[in-house]
Every structure is written in C-alpha cells, then in structure tokens.
Write a structure and sequence with these properties.
Largest sheet: 4 strands, mixed
Protein name: Glutathione transferase
Number of strands: 4
Strand content: 5-15%
Distance between the termini: 46 Å
Radius of gyration: 17 Å
Subunit structure: Homodimer.
GO biological process, one term: glutathione metabolic process
CATH architecture of the largest domain: Up-down Bundle
Shape: globular
Strand order of the largest sheet: 2-1-3-4
Number of helices: 8
GO molecular function, one term: glutathione transferase activity
Order of helices and strands: EHEHEEHHHHHH
Length: 222
C-alpha cells in the first residue's frame, strides 16, 4: 500500500541526496522522491521544518519516522530494510571499515570538494590552489584504498560505495578528469552497473549539479 512507501525529501543535484536514493533503489525501490528545491527555499516551509528543524536535505520519512543526515539514513536503511546484510556488515571489524569509509567521505572527500568549490560557486571567492590540492589528495587516497578491491570495502558493495560514488560522480560531471585514477574509474563503472536505474537516480543529478555550478561561476574549477 502507499502508506508502506518511504518518502525521501531531497534535491537531486545534491550528492548526499543521491547516495540515499541509490541505496533505496538497491534495496528494491519502495520509496517516492519528493523534490525540495533548496535554491527556492522550500526547505524552510513549515511542513518541512516539522520533520527536520535543521532544514537540510536529504530527509527520510519512513511512515512517520523522520531522519536526516545522509550517512545516518544509509545506516538506518541497511539495518531496517536491508535483507541483503552485506550492505552494512554486522561483524564488528567489517562494519568498522564501512564506517571508516563513510567518515572518509564526510570528512575528506566530500568536505574537501565543498571547501574548494562552494566559496567560489556561492560567494564568488577566487580559486584557491591550496584547497584544490587538498581535494586532489582525497582522490589519491581513494585510488589507493580501492587498490585491487572491487568496491571500497572489499568484494561486495556496501553503503559506503553509495556515499562515495555520489561525491565522485559529482566532480566527474563538473569536469574533473579521472584518467589518472584507473581504480576509481573502474569502480565508478562497476557501481553504475550494479545500481538499478543508475542514470536517473545518480547521473542526471550529478549533471544538474555541474550545470548549477557553471551557472554560478564562469571560473574553471577543474
């Protein structure tokens, strides 16, 4: 029934929203995506603030259970709805590796991308080479972490792949060339075949972000 369907409130250009959407698709797609246009301030509407006073996207509504913070949502979905236990292993050491890569995305990869891009994109700040270098360092680490592995934590796809994939495909769409990172390139390709409706659930949103960035600044970030 429609009441069993989860609602994901988000904005497709936003990488963390797409990571959750990919997870939901992977788990069988029993959800609706409710677009919240953050550029028009829709996240400040009273109904949205009731669900999430911090007015951030993504926000999940699972039959009246509201949760925000994308990486918390990913863990919740794997715990609550993931019959495929491999997405978030229960064995403590395996789970710790997934948590580590989620932290790597939040504190390094996505963080350094934002530190470099957002001041220029939203406030017209000149490009900062040092910040770009920090961002590139994150990709070098990811290339190293992937090594011979099929996915970021080993042979099986996990929620960490969804988080990191949404970040990497965002800067790829923005024009960052991954040619120097063959492990990362092969991994992006591999994931794109494993995630249902990949094009609509991730790729188009990444491209929308790139268009948004280009509409905000004429500077060449990548």
């Amino acid at each position: 029934s429609s009441s069993d369907v989860m609602k994901l409130y988000g904005y497709k250009p936003c990488a963390p929203c797409r990571s959750v959407a990919m997870c939901l698709e992977y788990l069988g797609g029993k959800y609706t995506f409710e677009e919240v246009d953050i550029t028009a301030g829709e996240q400040m509407k009273a109904d949205f603030l009731k669900m999430n006073p911090q007015h951030t996207v993504p926000t999940l509504d699972d039959q009246g259970f509201y949760l925000h913070e994308s990486r918390a949502i990913l863990r919740y979905l794997a715990n609550q709805h993931g019959a495929d236990r491999d997405l978030y292993p229960t064995e403590p050491k395996e789970r710790a590796q997934v948590d580590r890569m989620l932290c790597f995305d939040m504190g390094t990869l996505y963080q350094k991308f934002g530190d470099y891009v957002y001041p220029t994109m939203f406030r017209g700040v000149p490009l900062d080479d040092e910040k770009k270098q920090k961002f590139v360092e994150g990709i070098i680490y990811l290339e190293m972490y992937l090594g011979e592995k099929h996915f970021v934590c080993g042979d099986r796809i996990t929620i960490a792949d969804f988080a990191i994939l949404s970040t990497v495909t965002t800067f790829k769409a923005c024009g960052y060339d991954l040619a120097d990172y063959p492990n990362v390139e092969a991994w992006v390709e591999r994931c794109s075949h494993r995630i249902p409706n990949y094009q609509s659930v991730n790729q188009t949103g990444a491209e929308r972000f790139a268009q948004w960035m280009k509409s905000k600044t004429s500077l060449k970030l990548f």
